[in-house]
Amino acid sequence: MVPGEPMELIKTEQLNRFAGFGIGLASLFTENVLAHPCIVLRRQCQVNYHARHYHLTPFTVINIMYSFNKTQGPRALWKGMGSTFIVQGVTLGAEGIISEFTPLPREISHKWNPKQIGEHLLLKSLTYIVAMPFYSASLIETVQSEIIRDNAGILECIKEGIGRVIGMGVPHSKRLLPLLSLVFPTVLHGVLHYIISSIIQKIILLVLKRKAYNSHLAESTSPVQSMLDAYFPELIANFAASLCSDVILYPLETVLHRLHIQGTRTIIDNTDLGYEVLPINTQYEGMRDCINTIRQEEGMLGFYKGFGAVVIQYTLHAAVLQITKIIYSTLLQNSV
To answer: Considering only 20-34, 153-167, 214-228, which range has the smallest mean pLDDT?
Structure first.
């Protein structure tokens, strides 16, 4: 045995661990930080029933982003980011606590049955209900104009969420929909998003792993490719699942956000001009009325306002995945 071989093996294993951590970190950074300006603009367009420009393409979205950045500074596109992390934390925490104190399964076993799936989806539904008031508070933080916005602390989302439940906090108008009427659209969107993304993720993962397995059998796989196959299929599957579910459910998300924001006295930026502000004065009676009103007053494309931001968001994500793959491949080739 060559004395240097064990050291090389240790070096490769360390590189693999570092690369796995780095790849996961890059993906998380893209999903939660780099994509945030796109999420802010997408939500502002969705709730802006005044808007004449629908921003269906990335070109108009980039232009309006530049205008907001120029008139209000960089904070205009990064507002509410802390609250989105809080909502994720509340969701994970609620799911863990509910599954701990109930027989509802947090994961579905390989030998699943309809009863187990039903119980698992019930757990997800209860989790979305618990997180709902905090999601509503976070939505307000991300769409509220920076021009009239107070410098709220990072825990403002929790304070507002609790206030929404007990009926205290910031005064709201009579048009504010009660939380009970928001349960169905919130749970419907959350559960459908989870089901669609889970199915697509499993299908793509299965296809990619089968492809990798066949190439291994043909002995045409390089050591570098074998190591890439250990990390990237799951990232690609997650990316595709998130993209497909966001695109399919975009109209429902538009309706959901309008219902959550109604009556909260929120002032948003004018997405037609890139400056000035607009009040939200909708008077939807519920989910069905919201759908009918959007269809009649804004047309079917009204459900897709701000869709160009989704295109930019996932283009950035795909680019980061590709760059990460190139860097990882280069590091592996130098070490192998």
So the answer is: 214-228
Phi-psi region of 84 (alpha: psi -120 to 50; beta: other; left: phi over 0): alpha
Tell whether the model's pLDDT for residue 223 goes beyond 70.
no
Residue 1's pLDDT is 43
Q: Write down the pLDDT at residue 75.
A: 85
Which residues does 59 contact at the CB level (< 8 Å), separation at least 6?
A: 308
| Residue 283 main-chain phi, psi, to 5 deg | -135, 45
Q: Whole-angstrom Cα distance, residue 132 to residue 219?
A: 51
- Report CA-CA distances (Å) from 21 to 27, 229, 233: 10, 15, 15
Mean pLDDT of 58-66: 93
Count CA atoms closer than 13 A to 100's CA, side-chain side: 6
Angstrom distance (rounded) from CA 172 to CA 133 = 14
Give CA–CA dist 185/284, Å, rounded: 13
pLDDT tens by residue, 274-300 = 888 999 999 999 999 999 999 999 999
The answer to which of 59-63, 112-116, 224-228, 293-297 has the lowest mean pLDDT is: 224-228
Burial zone of 235 (CB within 10 Å; 0-12 exposed, 13-18 middle, 19+ buried): middle
- Exposed e or buried b per residue across 101-130, where buried means at least 16 C-beta atoms within 10 angstroms of its C-beta: eeebeeeeeeeeeeeeeebbbebbbbbbbb
User: Residue 334: enclosing H or E segment and its boundaries?
Assistant: helix 307-335
Q: Who contacts 117 (Cβ-Cβ below 8 Å, separation ≥6)?
A: 108
Both tokens of residue 46?
Answer: 């969705």
Calpha distance 26→14 (Å, rounded): 18
